[in-house]
From TrEMBL:
Alphabetical list of InterPro entries matching this protein: DENND11/AVL9_GEFs, LCHN/Anr2, Tripartite_DENN
Span list, region Disordered: 1-111
Keyword vocabulary terms for this entry: Guanine-nucleotide releasing factor
Domain of life the protein comes from: Eukaryota
A Pfam family recorded for this sequence: DENND11
Stretches assigned to coiled coil: none
Origin species: Seriola lalandi dorsalis
The family this protein is said to belong to: Belongs to the DENND11 family.
Spans traversing the lipid bilayer: none
Domain UDENN residues, every copy: 61-497
Polar residues: bias regions: 37-48
Name the UniProt record assigns to this protein: DENN domain-containing protein 11
Length: 497
């Protein structure tokens, strides 16, 4: 039986290739109106949404938009409004470009070169197909010389034949990818009654991939209906491709330069700068319940966390990101001595050699065989079941008194947020901030104790961190070791408790 994925497009936006953009403002407005009234945009409507974050990015910064609750409780990402009257024409990308062309001012090079995390940059676009004889195959790509070995197994997740649509975030070497998958029934004995394809992109950063979700969904439907029609993808790549500097200094420029694109990201909340899976944070907490506090500790300890789930895998990729949000720290210098906690997103057996060399990661998979590869992970999450084979971590799976108190406050906050969102339709970003403030509280206290004349952790200082002096003792000892607080002494009250 084929299941249908429960997600809606993150942004109901269709990219207009630069070669096809009308030259005047009036035609551009008419074209935008056509796009907004197209069938693909009829899903967006006015009214308040289910609880969750919904943001539509524009040059003036984030604005609230509709989000839809999916079957597992995770709100799907936002869609832009289909009401042209609600759009500020002065903030439209095509309008902005038209106005900038008519003015004499030229944007300085230093303003156009921003850090790669904050700039449109597509290094590759590709189409993957399932062949009944050869399996997953790379069908087409740009640029032609791009190393895409293995991407065919990332863009179509294992078990995807059981769903009709899905989306997948993944890592390919030093790049991050997003692919949209679709499965269409066909009357063909050669294709065994089903045609499956995926259209994806690669970027040096995952922070802006969400912008192209709807475009990729539209393109994969087009590839299913009209195989071999690559001209929209070619135009998209020419418009969005990144120009990577040979020096490798972490800075890229995207051609053509769009000043409004950088302005969007500078004005967005840090918690919302990724793909907006932070919008699923409330449902992520509800899904795991009290176990969220166990995941929080393990993430803060930079453990290798692997999440198993059958397809669709898109919502599980969101859980990967939400898990990363649990370990955010904004105090300068604290995370210098610990491994970087970056998401791997979807992984398969082809990633085993890469995972063997990782000291810290969070990833998801649809392949049950990973459970047997105990040397690849420290923590294995199957549905809501969090488990570990590491004896030193097993005590951390038990909740302390402080954990339950923090979860109670978190639950109250989630309930308050839900009521507020229903009334105002204006979501907030307090859930990632809840854990950020908790983490900052811990390390601020540790730094103060370390700098005091008597660098000894007492029950009072542990309580000041929001931890349980008894139940969180082992967690605290792990924390001191990993983050390099080896000069701190631990009170005998904690050792003997």
């Amino acid at each position: 039986m084929v299941e249908r994925s429960d997600r809606a497009p993150l942004l109901d936006w269709e990219e207009v290739p630069s070669a096809e953009k009308p030259g005047g403002a009036a035609p551009a407005a008419a074209h935008a109106k056509d796009r907004l009234s197209s069938p693909s945009n009829t899903r967006a409507s006015s009214g308040c949404s289910a609880p969750g974050f919904g943001w539509s990015s524009g040059p003036g910064g984030p604005t609230p938009s509709r989000s839809v609750s999916s079957s597992d409780g995770c709100s799907t990402p936002p869609m832009t409004s289909s009401n042209p009257a609600g759009t500020d024409e002065g903030l439209r990308p095509d309008k902005e470009e038209h106005l900038s062309d008519s003015g004499p001012r030229e944007v300085p090079l230093e303003d156009r070169m921003v850090k790669w995390e904050e700039k449109d940059q597509i290094v590759s676009v590709f189409v993957v197909t399932f062949n009944t004889r050869s399996g997953n195959m790379l069908e087409w790509c740009l640029p032609k010389d791009m190393d895409l070995e293995g991407v065919e197994f990332k863009a179509i997740a294992s078990g995807s034949h059981r769903v009709t649509t899905d989306f997948i975030y993944f890592r390919k070497g030093s790049y991050f990818g997003l692919a949209c998958f679709a499965n269409m029934a066909v009357e063909s004995t050669v294709e065994r009654g089903a045609r499956m394809k995926s259209v994806g992109i690669l970027s040096p950063s995952y922070t802006l991939l969400y912008r192209y979700m709807s475009f990729l969904e539209h393109q994969v439907r087009l590839q299913l209906q009209s195989p071999g029609h690559y001209s929209p993808l070619e135009a998209f790549y020419e418009d969005k491709r990144a120009l990577l500097p040979p020096s490798g200094d972490g800075v890229v420029t995207a051609g053509p330069a769009n000043a409004w694109g950088a302005a969007i990201n500078h004005s967005m909340h840090p918690e919302m700068k990724i793909t907006h899976p932070a919008g699923c944070m409330s449902q992520f907490i509800r899904f795991f319940g009290e176990q969220i506090m166990v995941l929080w500790k393990l993430a803060l300890l930079r453990r290798r966390i692997l999440i198993f789930s059958p397809p669709p895998v898109g919502v599980v990729c969101y859980r990967v990101y939400c898990c990363c949000c649990l370990a955010n720290i904004s105090i300068p210098g604290v995370s210098v001595a610990v491994p970087e906690f970056r998401p791997f997103f979807y992984v398969n057996v082809a990633d085993i050699s890469a995972l063997e060399n990782e000291l810290s990661y969070v990833a998801c998979t649809t392949e049950k065989i990973f459970e047997e590869k105990k040397d690849l992970y420290d923590v294995y999450v199957d549905n809501q079941n969090v488990k570990t084979c590491r004896d030193g971590l097993k005590p951390l799976l038990r909740l302390s008194t402080a954990d339950r108190e923090k979860y109670r406050k978190l639950t109250e906050q989630r309930r308050s947020e839900s009521n507020s969102n229903r009334l105002t339709c204006f979501p907030t970003v307090n859930f990632p901030r809840f854990f950020l403030e908790q983490n900052n509280r811990i390390f601020q206290t540790l730094s103060e104790v370390a700098g005091s004349p008597d660098p000894t952790l007492t029950q009072e200082s542990v309580r000041a961190m929001g931890l349980d002096p008894h139940g969180d003792r082992l967690f605290l000892l792990h924390l001191l070791e990993i983050y390099g607080y080896d000069t701190l002494l631990v009170s005998e009250q904690l050792c003997c408790s």
